[in-house]
Amino acid sequence: MKNKIKHVLFLSVILFSVASCIDDKGNYDYTEIEDAIVEIQEVKENGGKISRDRYAELSFNPEIQYQAGSSVDDYNFEWSLYTQQSQKDDDDAYIPKKIIGDKPQLSYKLIDEPDKYYVVLKVTHKETGSCTDYRFELNVNSMAGWLIYDEVAGGDGDFQIIRDREIVPELSSIQTGIVRNYFSTANGGKKLQGGKFLGRRNMNNRYDHLYLFKEDGMYKMKAGTYEVITEDYSTLFSTQPAKNAPMALYYPSPMYGQVEVFVNNNEMYTIRWNMLGQEDKYTTPIGAFGTAYKVNPFIAPVPVTGNTVRAVLYNDISNARGQFITINSSGAAGFPRTPDGKFNTGAINMNESMQLKLEYLGQGRDGITCALFKDELNAGKFSLYTADFRDVSKPLALEIYDLGDLQDIDDAKYFTFGTRGDVLFYATTSKVYSYVFDGAVTELLSTPGEEIVSMKLYTHSANEDYSGRMLFVATYDGSVGKVYKIKFNELNGQLDGEIEEYTGFGRIIDMMNKE
Question: Which of 144, 158, 88 is nearest to 114 (CA)?
Fold first, then answer.
């Protein structure tokens, strides 16, 4: 009986000791044990939740008050990291906590994948065994921002990421700036080669991919970590194309219908993501009677809800008259015609006096489709055609704008349209202009001594303040690349604030917003 009582008492002591450590979990302010008080000011000020970017340094110097007569030498320290959701390894065993420090101060490089974690500082008295857990939440973020692919003179490429609170609203002050060479950081020093354009797929955690497409191939990466998954272009297809030639990728967010559109070798492919069991592979190009339809290398998004058109393409490659092609919510192609409109969307070149060739196709205000043409029979004269394909059953040919007299339009190389107003942006090798449809032309930027090499509109699914209101322009002076961030009024296309400059890049090949 006495032995049983002793065992019960001994067990009670153990349980009480463990509880004294566990009870303090979740207290991110003061954690009092028998002889220590722990505080980290940043944690306290942020309500027990902090965030860092992957590969950032996680550094803390906590304030620890010891009982009179005790010092730091009387304690053991253990910093640990573990996910908020239990995870298993390949052997179906739960992944244990990760020890990241054994001193009062912490300095740890966050090589861990983006996720939600707990960080725990365990302080244990060496003699008495009394301890406490000081725990707080840590979000390790994927690197979001204005993503740049640039190359140096030798041909090596990498990712540079511009980050500020206008581009990524949720950033803290310590997360702003330019993150350099992020691809090589994430891939053991490896460099990119021969990139042509960037793309993104964000269907779910399984299919969350970032792409850098090449002339005849690709780099496929995890969007959260930027780590390369594969460089094998054939893995995109269940039936291999006759030629590897990626040209354009458009993936709308799930709220817009879950249809992905891809152009390879002037042929279009779709993936209907809301199909049960759909895999991330393109089957055969869209066509009829065994022949694939041909399209130009542009995809104009149509971001609307309902059973409507998702994207618009154009074909003047195999159809001399030129025709718009729509992709609906089932991933099927349509050929809208508007014979009674201001022009026929099924046959742009209606007579022998004109031969319009597509120069650029893009999304305009509220999902309107905007197409820039050059007339090969009229000295390459520019014109702008706008159409509304949002309702699959009621295509509308809206307007034709004569752009022949616009300042420097004949020298323009880069184009994009405003998505919140009727504005065209165009750039020569040294100037950027805005044009309000059937209205004024405004010079936004002049770059003497610097060649303009790219121009892109900033869009963001949740940044209402700046989505569709900023323009990024990249230049190169022969040795150094630069990026200009231009804020503009979405209705009149004029400057809205000071132009900001970022420098220190190689020759910039492509840019996009990475959420």
Answer: 144
